[in-house]
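Note to self: keep these together.
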Amino acid sequence: MSQRNACVALTLDLIDWIRAYEVHIIEQLGIEYRRGTLIRWNNGKRPFAPAERFAPAWRELSFHVAANFWRLFQAEASLNATEVVAECTVRTKLPIG
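Structure:
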């Protein structure tokens, strides 16, 4: 497997792990708990997804990354990994660090 293929696979696995974590948190602790933890993100200065959309948004991000990874990798080769993730995040309205 090439490094690029490994990078794609690892990136998609990570996104799916985060999505599964979000589903698990809602199943175990409830949507109200998740709303309370995410409310801090909604400061009006960065993209925000409500708790109900958080897990589905991660899934959408994985589809977006899978569909566009090669284009992002080649066309934006000068960007670092954080900037590429940020670009994907902006396109899918997900909060990041």
